[in-house]
Amino acid sequence: MFALHLHAFAFVVLAVSVTQLPVVAQGVWLLLPAYALWAARRVYGGGWPALVLRLAGVALGYAFCLAVVLSLLMVWVLLN
What we know:
The chain has 3 helices and no strands.
């Protein structure tokens, strides 16, 4: 449920960032990592150093999986 909640917040940030005000669009993206840290601390607890390391590992894994899937999708589109 935590991942669903965090993704919902990310979509709200995305919706707000498409406004015509560049300051708001840039500022709202700074909220996402801060909110992720705060929400993870609230849900899972623990100390800040361990929490930051855990979330960094999750972010790297997420980025790796996203890169693999997007690369495979690009290859599939180019071949069809």
